[in-house]
Write a structure and sequence with these properties.
With 198 residues, the protein is mainly α. The chain is built from six helices and no strands. Its main location: membrane.
Length: 198
């Protein structure tokens, strides 16, 4: 097999797999850890409040740092994997595929590229509205901290407390949507692996 094909298959399969595993890890492990309630050493100090064990402003800042780190790494990785699959669709356009595949290699790898890029509309339509709400919360808190000269009115304090109370649920919602987003590169990775070994 041509070296270019082998390299493109590796980039497509491994890139999709890494993107899917990173998204899944964030949603299944990292976010639930951020949302853990405070730990109590004494068994008699049973906590009835099940909220996160860190102040909401800190929690939303931690989430924003996680979101920004993923946003820097995962879109380029996903695009590179999809481009590798698109390259395979182009370079293998005349190659016959085994009967088990059911379509030409060109259509097979084109499908892998399109499915992988399904993260883009999902991110824009489903995930971004939640991201916008959480980023607005961070911006509001940063503005309050920066403007130390003005105290908040009682009405503003009540409003901000209500907004703060929504943050853990918004982070959980983002986590769920992010886990669904991982399905696209996971399917791309499975197609890529099948293309290599199938």
């Amino acid at each position: 097999m041509d070296t270019n094909v082998t390299v493109a298959q590796a980039i497509g399969s491994l890139g999709c797999g890494l993107a899917a595993s990173s998204m899944s890890f964030t949603s299944l492990t990292l976010v639930p850890t951020l949302l853990l309630p405070a730990r109590h050493v004494s068994a008699s100090a049973v906590r009835t409040d099940r909220g996160p064990g860190t102040p909401i402003a800190h929690l939303s800042r931690q989430w924003l740092d996680v979101q920004n780190a993923g946003h820097r790494m995962l879109p380029p990785l996903t695009v590179a994997a999809a481009l590798a699959n698109a390259y395979l669709a182009w370079i293998l356009r005349g190659s016959p595929a085994p009967a088990a595949v059911g379509v030409s290699w060109a259509k097979f790898y084109a499908a892998a590229a399109v499915i992988t890029m399904g993260t883009v509309p999902w991110s824009v339509l489903a995930v971004q509205p939640v991201v916008n709400q959480l980023e607005a919360h961070n911006a509001r808190h940063d503005a309050i901290v920066a403007d130390k000269t003005v105290g908040l009115s009682e009405q503003d304090q009540v409003k901000h407390a209500a907004e703060d109370a929504q943050v853990p649920a918004l982070i959980e919602r983002w986590s769920t949507l992010n886990l669904y987003r991982a399905v696209f590169p996971l399917l791309g990775a499975l197609l890529g692996v099948y293309g290599v070994f199938g």
